[in-house]
Amino acid sequence: MENLYPDLKQNKTRFEKDFADCSDFLLREIKISGRDALMLAMDGLVNSNNVAELVMRPVLESDLPHETPNTLFEALKTAKIAATEMNEAQTFEDVQYFLMSGFVAVLVDGCPRALCLGTQGWNKRMTSESSNEAMSKGAKESFVESINDNKALVRRRLKTPHLKFRQLKLGQETQTPVVIAYMDDKADKSIVDGVEMRLKSSNLETVLDYGCLHPFIDSDVRTFFSSVGVTERPDTLCSKLLEGRVAVMVEGSPFTMYVPYLFSDNFQSFDDYDNPPFYAGFIRLLKYMSFFASIFLPGLFVAVGTYHLELLPTQMIYHIAAAEVMTPFSLTTESIITFLLYEVMREAGLRLPKTIGHAVSIIGAIVIGEATVSAGLIGAPTLIIVAITAISSYVVYPLYESTAVLRLISIVVGGVTGIYGIVLLACLLGVSACSIGPFGVPYSAPITPFSKDSAPDIFIRESWKKLRLRRVKIQDLRGASVDADKKL
Fold it and tell me: Which positions, given as ranges, span the membrane (predicted)?
């Protein structure tokens, strides 16, 4: 980093060179109490009215002590300037960072320092209802792209000084603000330090979204299960922080990551705790069944239809056999083609504009549904299995990417090895899930190793009368190596 020059003309020349061909760069020469000074800003990132009324007017109209440049600079810091933030910068790189963050920089001739005043004024999206985590009950707020607004949404719900925000700057070119949020009386310090170490070691050139940092926080990217949770709901994040988890917010992203993330978290939602326990428990069990059905149902269908027809009722055998006689493909090939066509239609519906996306859905339903069966390209039983599986995979949406790939693997395994291969695949997935230990906490906890104080709220939803008596932290789960002296 290069320090600012005492000479104002040298500083001006350097900034004009660095920001050459930048039409949004604003530079104005002014006089403060008779001394030459510079005002720097970026058009579109500052509020022009605030700059004029709250910064320029007090600076130009005040009679400040100006015996030496340093005296004038110190007087500026105590002047009646109504800026939201005030920072001092001594290097060109620091001044450039503040300019890109919506600050106004003031430099005085003879002083190798810059006073950076917060006057941010860019356009930003207002808080709205979450589009990915919609709930029938509960709050309708979600995170936005502004990291300061996101911190305020969390702070408003957790009114305690124990809520901490560590801020980093990541990305050599973007210098993106990244915040580590945690409760210092609940989160284990080793987890907080581990997250910070992984973020600092990312060494990326650009950080434009949370997805850039996700692989560096994830414990093992080679598995089908992610150990990093993602949410855009402040209430969900607050509940995770109260359990001792650590969150990562990225400027420009409405999604917030948190760790450690466990397998059981995929089946829980904040909406569960707004519904009666008996209904919330029923929905949770339904989610578990839907998850396993979305992976293994197509494979079991192919395996039974190819190798184990004796397991089916006689009438069902006749229907499957009659449908397969009319199609030119084997049951395995037929299932793979159908699922690939479904994924193509789904991807097209997501990427196209909403007005056209509905048309794609209608065409897909007609072409894949009615026309292919009528033409004898795909059997009706296969189409029914695909429809059931597709709907089931959306019930546990956080695991959709994993189930989409595992579903195809299940079909291939079932078509090659039969039901024995499906059983082996299920065992391998179980071993894979149990082998993941994000930040020393087993991914499969509290199911295995079993934790008696947490497990009852995994498959069913307990009442608040029982939940209020429990203060379980994530590092206290049985099998966690974060704190070996505490095992529930």
Answer: 285-304, 316-342, 363-396, 408-431
pLDDT mean values, one per 10 residues, the chain (488 residues): 93 95 93 91 88 82 82 86 86 94 93 92 81 80 92 94 95 93 94 94 93 89 87 94 95 95 90 85 93 96 90 82 82 91 83 70 69 80 90 92 94 95 95 86 85 73 72 76 46
Q: Which residues contact 446 (CB under 8 A, 6 or more apart)?
A: 262, 264, 454, 455, 458, 477, 478, 488
99 and 169 co-located in one domain: no
Q: Is residue 125 part of a domain?
A: no
Token pair for residue 174? 């973007």
- Whether residue 35 is found in the same domain as residue 160: no
418 shares its domain with 378: yes
Query: 138 — alpha (psi -120 to 50), left (phi > 0) or beta?
Result: left
Q: String of b and e for 353-365 (b: at least 16 CB within 10 Å)?
A: eeeeeeebeeebe
Q: In terms of residue numbers, what domain contains 101?
A: 8-118
DSSP, res 462:
P
Do the domain assignments include residue 271?
A: no
Tell whether 342 and 410 lie within a shared domain.
Answer: yes
d(CA 410, CA 297): 8
